Amino acid sequence: MTIKEVAEKFNMTNDTLRYYEKVGLIGPIKKNSSGIRDYSEEDLKRIEFIKCMRSAGISIEVLKKYVDLYDEGESTKLERQHLLEEEQDKLEEKIKTMTEALDKLKYKIELYKTDKLDEYL
Amino acid sequence: MTIKEVAEKFNMTNDTLRYYEKVGLIGPIKKNSSGIRDYSEEDLKRIEFIKCMRSAGISIEVLKKYVDLYDEGESTKLERQHLLEEEQDKLEEKIKTMTEALDKLKYKIELYKTDKLDEYL
DNA sequence: TTATCACTTAGAGTCTAGTCTAAGTCAATA
DNA sequence: TATTGACTTAGACTAGACTCTAAGTGATAA
To answer: What is the model's pTM?
Structure first.
């Protein structure tokens, strides 16, 4: 699969894909005889995971750490698990914060709708 | 209330408070005879709202637009409501995305825990 | 054969949201 | 009186995550 197809599939840019490769999040991607990237199914699975975690706000730094541990092999399994658990906690906290903000936003919109607005902002 | 007290109350830095004022998100804050900021209750309410919305990821640009509309008066009420509704949609979408990522993360952690890991990353 | 087009690289530039620095003012304490 | 400490300003700097540019290669279409 070419970089263009992958970019389209995951709705990201070629630049981002090459950037992720450069910082070591994915790949190195196999290249054909003319030096053109050819993404494998394995690559796609990694990209999907990375994309998903990025969309949740997990930093490239943390993901890079996870990938590096993975590449170190079996012996890092527990450390990897702990890393993921930490990110789980952070993510749950973030979702909670955002849900609270959403509730306030909804309340504010309700005030606008019922014309009961006698507030500051 | 001094800038230091406000910063402590909302767990942010003096710099951020001055930055928000500079870009027009809050204030201008009243100053005493020596040029020192003295935050009013009104100011605090605004800051709390801004802080809450920022923690949900609403951009400074959007918040600035909302504040500007507010300052234009009654005639912008509907536009303000629409702006908030748009942000509500975006926020709901973001929470959904993050919740999906969280589920994947939990699943992955479960695989680690049960030692059933035969995966890519 | 020449031109076009999609790809390649290294590295510079951009955007957002702060964060930090330097130089200065003022009030209160040693 | 001198110095300490909290504040002030304008403006430079930073981090994170891309995004763009310039220069080059190789396969294919005209």
So the answer is: 0.91
